[in-house]
């Protein structure tokens, strides 16, 4: 049995889905405070293998017996890509389109509890829904049913393949959300009270869904942690396809890609997306893998859809950490200090008056050294400018912005992913917390962060002034103040980049 931060189950739980009954297990004694049930690896679509590798997600067939949902299902991630500090294990197998459901009210169709659906990150090529951090125990304690979704990754999920549907990973998200609409009552949830959330690529995923007209009926609120949309241009997607086909020595056809082994495809994908030293190109265009503009699910850049009013009826909370990717440069501080900042930033495309304005707006970072400045600039370009542009594009739509500033990590800065264990209130997890959040992460910060998430999920609002009412205003979690504070210009440091 898979360990989801629990001991041996005290009892089993059952729920009946539209395809058949499933058996999960209780964490804690049923009927006692804090007890909830986990249902793991429930398939929402057929295994995407063979002729289905590049197909639309296909509905599952019915099953007759009670199906065990006691262990995490297969993940699309293979091995350990080493791209995140979140413990996200790979699980071998083919049936990767599955959901995990955590609920305090299994089988109670009248409970009508609000629902959180989590989409994991990982750059659209890595990540897993099987993380112990995504265990919904804390949300269950607060009366929220929690679901995590698996989806196709990398070229299989997002690459352009002639004759195959575009954005297969996006279609997997939608299929997972359709499963929630059809089945969540059986797990005590209310399909009319669904909030979608995700971090990093998962944050980009929920923003992509917010901007897609074809997904609007599937959720009612959004929280994006460190999210930035990919919006890959068609020509960029075709170029990457040609590179991968060339690396494999095949024609870029669906039949040829279906005939290649998964291992060979992953090897070619890695070679084709290798950044080398060209970080400036990555900041401008990304890897070329991710949700792509397709004229259908994503008819135009997501920010244009948001500006046109798509998703304007849904509350959105979004934010980023102060130093998302600064940790990538932590070991180069001594070397970088001898290189003029003007040269370092110039190589990244920041020059002249804009560079001077940016440095003036970030004097506190300049005082920490060249590596800190370069890391902050990369973080700002990739994530924080996206927060401001997204919030601005929403106009009068209900939008709240925050910034995560807790610097208690071993990197001594608010790095990428540091907000996740606080958001899930899982600081007691036996896996990975000290490596990211330090040896003594403050429970009070988890209470505030997780509590804010619960307010959005339950009440479709946040507890600080909305950006749509006071542009520039954001809540600061984990800053110098002992309690989360409100900053009237929370993203002042990135304005020279806009």
Note down, in words, how this protein is organized.
The protein has 498 residues and is an alpha/beta fold. The protein folds into 3 domains: 12-234 and 288-314, Alpha/Beta hydrolase fold, catalytic domain (Rossmann fold); 235-285, no CATH class; 319-497, no CATH class. The protein is built from 17 helices and 13 strands. It has helices at residues 137-141, 154-158, 168-183, 201-210, 234-248, 254-259, 262-272, 279-285, 302-307, 333-336, 341-347, 352-361, 363-366, 370-393, 420-423, 433-437, 443-459; strands spanning 12-17, 20-27, 36-43, 67-68, 98-103, 113-119, 145-149, 189-199, 221-225, 316-321, 399-404, 474-477, 485-487. Strands 1, 2, 3, 4, 5, 6, 7, 8, 9, 10, 11, 12 and 13 form a 13-stranded mixed beta sheet that branches. A hairpin with a 7-residue loop joins strand 12 (474-477) and strand 13 (485-487). Helix 5 (234-248) crosses helix 7 (262-272). The longest helix is centred in the C-terminal third of the chain and has 24 residues, at 370-393.
Task: Work out the strand percent.
Answer: 15-25%
Q: Which radius of gyration do the C-alpha atoms yield? A: 22 Å
Helical residues, percent: 25-40%
Beta strand count: 13
Shape: globular
Mean pLDDT comes to 93
Q: What is the CATH third-level topology name of the largest domain?
A: Rossmann fold
Can you tell me the CATH superfamily of the largest domain? Alpha/Beta hydrolase fold, catalytic domain
EC number: 3.1.1.-
Organism: Microbacterium mangrovi
Pfam families: COesterase
Domain Carboxylesterase type B: 17-426
């Amino acid at each position: 049995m898979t360990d989801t931060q629990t001991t041996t189950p005290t009892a089993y739980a059952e729920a009946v889905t539209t395809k058949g009954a499933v058996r999960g297990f209780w964490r804690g004694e049923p009927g006692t405070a804090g007890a909830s049930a986990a249902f793991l690896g429930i398939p929402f679509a057929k295994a995407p293998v063979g002729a289905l590798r590049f197909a639309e997600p296909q509905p599952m067939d019915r099953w007759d017996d009670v199906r065990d949902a006691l262990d995490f299902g297969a993940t699309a991630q293979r091995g350990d890509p080493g791209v995140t500090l979140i413990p996200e294990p790979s699980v071998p197998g083919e049936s990767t389109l599955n959901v995990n459901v955590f609920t305090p009210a299994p089988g109670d169709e009248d409970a009508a509890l609000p629902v959180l659906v989590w989409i994991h990150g990982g750059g659209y090529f890595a990540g897993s829904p099987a993380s112990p951090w995504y265990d919904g125990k804390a949300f269950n304690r607060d009366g929220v049913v929690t679901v995590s979704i698996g989806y196709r990754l990398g070229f299989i999920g997002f690459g352009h393949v002639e004759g195959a549907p575009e954005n297969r990973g996006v279609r997997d998200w939608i299929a997972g959300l359709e499963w929630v609409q059809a089945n969540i009552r059986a797990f005590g949830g209310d399909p009319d009270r669904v909030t979608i959330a995700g971090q990093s690529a998962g944050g980009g995923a929920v923003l992509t869904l917010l901007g897609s007209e074809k997904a609007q009926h599937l959720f009612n609120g959004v929280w994006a942690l460190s999210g930035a949309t990919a919006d890959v241009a068609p020509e960029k997607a075709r170029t990457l396809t040609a590179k991968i086909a060339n690396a494999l020595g095949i024609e870029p056809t669906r039949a040829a890609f279906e005939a290649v082994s998964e291992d060979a495809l992953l090897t070619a994908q890695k070679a084709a997306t290798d950044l080398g030293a060209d970080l400036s190109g990555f900041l401008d265009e990304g890897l070329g893998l991710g949700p792509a503009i397709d004229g259908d699910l994503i008819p135009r850049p997501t920010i244009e859809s948001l500006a046109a009013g798509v998703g304007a009826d849904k509350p959105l909370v979004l934010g980023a950490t102060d130093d998302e990717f600064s940790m990538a440069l932590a070991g180069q501080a001594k070397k970088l200090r001898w290189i003029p900042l003007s040269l370092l930033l110039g190589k990244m495309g920041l020059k002249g008056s804009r560079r001077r304005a940016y440095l003036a707006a970030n004097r506190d970072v300049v005082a920490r050294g060249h590596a800190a400045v370069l890391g902050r600039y990369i973080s700002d370009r990739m994530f924080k400018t996206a927060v401001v542009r997204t919030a601005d594009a929403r106009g009068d739509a209900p939008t709240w912005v925050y910034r995560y500033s807790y610097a208690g990590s071993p990197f001594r800065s608010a790095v990428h992913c540091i907000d996740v264990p606080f958001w899930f209130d899982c600081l007691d997890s036996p896996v990975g917390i000290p490596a990211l959040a330090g040896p003594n992460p403050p429970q009070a910060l988890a209470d505030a962060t997780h509590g804010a998430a619960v307010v959005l999920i339950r009440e479709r609002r946040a507890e600080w002034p909305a950006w749509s009412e006071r542009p520039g205003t954001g809540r600061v979690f984990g800053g110098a103040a002992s309690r989360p504070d409100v900053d009237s210009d929370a993203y002042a440091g990135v304005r020279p980049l806009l």
